[in-house]
Amino acid sequence: MAARGRLARWAAVALLVAVLVALPSVVAALPADDADVPAADLRAAVLDGADVGFSGYAVSAGGLALPVSDRLTAAADLFSDRTLMRVWWRGPDEHRVDVVAAAGETGVHRDPGGTWTWDFEAGTATRGLPASLALPAPPDLLPAALGRRLLSEATDDEVTRAGARRVAGRDALGLRVAPAEPASSVARVDVWVDPASGLPLQVEVYGEDAALPALDTRFLDLDLAVPPADVVAFTPPPDATVLTAPDTEGLIAEAGERAPDVSLPAELAGLPRRSFTGVPGAVGVYGRGVTLLAAVPVPQRLAGGLREALTASPEAVTDALGTRVAAGPLGLMLVERAGGPAYVLTGTVTLDALAEAARQLPGAAS
After folding, report:
1. What whole-number distance in Å separates Cα of residue 171 and Cα of residue 193?
2. Could you state, in order of their start, the residue ranges of all structural domains in the chain?
3. Which CATH class is domain 248-360?
4. pLDDT tens-digit profile of 68-112?
5. Is 365 helix (H, G, I), strand (E, B) or coil?
6. Which UniProt keywords apply (predicted)?
7. How many CB atoms lie within 10 A of CB 231?
8. 3-class SS at 248?
9. What's the predicted TM-score (pTM) here?
10. Which of 28, 91, 153, 352 could staple 289 via S-S, CB 3.0–4.6 A?
11. Comparing 2-244 with 248-360, is the CATH topology the same?
12. Cβ atoms of 127 and 108 closer than 8 Å
């Protein structure tokens, strides 16, 4: 009887998922009222709206088939699959995002002290501490969070208005970001904003010459009210298995300490190097906003697995510089040379930009 009840529960969830995913196409067909709001003012409203409270459903759909290891499967799935999320947002440090699927449900509860990830089916609660550098999680793909981040470093010259559309039953005004860097593989980012609250309701990321977005995240249903604190808070049930999440910053720092001792240049593919808290000195991060490139030296003994994953793609390009491949607007390259370290290059840059960066690395082939 318990198994039958569980099956009925998830059958109902599957039906709900189907209805919610289909609903936006019906609502979007309704006409939307545009408003004469300058792009700079609309962008400012988005950046000022970080503390807006809300709750509702959102869906994210990505088409990036990333060649990653089993340890990174969960993060990669966010960019390659369809993810339905139920969200309660009181603020950046106090929110809850449940990923709802036919096979089960996983909730991410954020509080000022860190996060709880609750796997309902497995009965496991995993505690993670706040980190300035962490793998992508479902809250990062909410339209509100992603739209605000992608607009935060855009210049006024890169942002224009893009009309209006209906999103989650609301009139949303469009902002279009067209990256200025020649190295960028992102043609544009469209952010659709609720003008009253400054909340991004939908974000679409397009690669060069792409008719469909490589990533599309949008609200399906939205209530612009601060949800109750008890809905967001989480305490592990008495019978739960409590785990501790890996220290991402510690692992990255340890990997940085083991990385070959090389001095990365101040610029790669025309993109200036920048620094981030939590990023070790052995890792180079270049660019800004939508256009970012990371360069990481790795020992040759660790390069074989990545080379095998990259060359398995029919789109892979292999030459004297190394092997590179694109998954939508995301590029990935392994640079190898005899007698020295290998380098991994990845980011939202073109394959030509990856090749240019490879030529500028210390000791790389010319």
Report:
1. 8
2. 2-244, 248-360
3. alpha beta
4. 444 444 544 555 578 899 999 999 999 999 998 777 789 999 999
5. coil
6. Lipoprotein
7. 12
8. helix
9. 0.81
10. 153
11. no
12. no
